[in-house]
Amino acid sequence: MNQNQNFDQILESAVVANWVDLMRGARSGLIHVEYGFVANGTLDYLQFWSSITRGHWLLACAYRMSASGFHVTGVHFDNGYASEGLAHALELVIAHQNAFAAPRNLGRAGLLQIATPTQQEISAATASVSEAFDPHQLRVRGPGLGLNSGAARY
Fold first, then answer.
1. CB 134 within 8 A of CB 19
2. What is the pLDDT, as a whole number, of residue 4?
3. Tell me, what DSSP letter sits at residue 142?
4. Residue 15 pLDDT
């Protein structure tokens, strides 16, 4: 696990590395990542909003830490979005969230806005995610989280 990254950086890298999935063929757009932590510093929720058309936002993905009558825990894609790479990265981030420096002001919602990256930024983000989850340093157990499963691209 690369401990040089903070929580915001790894989320941004995960989004940029999977940009094509979140833009669904559009050449440009914006992604908003909203998150909240509970008082003890544990992640409460993550939401990824995509804007391909100016002024119009769609919920692309959410990660829910606790179940309710409306949803179960884990990664959920909405509005026709899907990204195996983002889902895998989020599972790893959540499983190892304490390895990343938490944002300040844990009681407040956090928001990242990510604009259309260049191809060079996508390559750098993919490398950053791969480095953060180096299989020689990270051992994850459980269904869907094994790095040697062949389905993971990190």
1. no
2. 56
3. S
4. 96
Separation between Cα atoms, residue 56 and residue 64, nearest integer Å = 23
Q: Are 5 and 89 in contact (CB under 8 A)?
A: no
* Rounded Cα distance, 111 and 46, in Å: 10
Of 31, 4, 51, 50, the residue nearest 121 (C-alpha): 31
Contacts of 20 (CB under 8 A, 6+ apart): none
Six-digit token string for 120? 């060079």
pLDDT at 58 over 70: yes
Q: What is the DSSP string of 30-81?
A: EEEEEEEE-TTS-EEEEEEEEESSTT--EEEEEEESS--SS--SEEEE-TT-
Residue 5 has pLDDT above 80, yes or no: no
pTM, two decimals, is: 0.79
Q: What's the pLDDT tens digit per position in 73-102?
A: 789 999 999 999 999 999 888 888 878 877
Long-range Cβ pairs for the range 72-75 (8 Å, 24+): none
